[in-house]
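REQUEST FORM: STRUCTURE PREDICTION
Request ID: SP-0412
Submitted by: Lab K.M.
Chain count: 1
Length (residues): 127
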Amino acid sequence: MERFLSTWLVSAVALAFSAWLLGDRMDIGDPNDPATQRVITLLVVALVFTLVSSIIGPIVKVLSLPFIIITLGLALLVINALLLLLTQRITDAFDVTFFVDGFWWAVLASVVISMSQTVVAGLVGKR
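STATUS: Completed
RESULT:
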């Protein structure tokens, strides 16, 4: 449970950084909402993203393993972008504001998120 909570919070920081970096191409929450509401929205999006990445991600990656090997790992960029877009679709179903402006922006966002998660997890793990 502790590992899931730390992964969730690391994902929240990574998603927030990615949304900040990509500007209008990736939004989490309504800009007119108060700060507490935006933080709650960020935490909900991070929760959905963590669940999607933890449950669906490994299944898709195992099924795509030959393609991942053939593309020397570049297929992982596509898989991660699709997981991010799936997160967008799920949060939309629950009326949570999360927006990524298309597939290629999702690819870029997934790269930023992966790099951010690595940095934040490294900082959190070095206490």
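NOTES: The radius of gyration is 14 Å.
Reviewed by: T.R.
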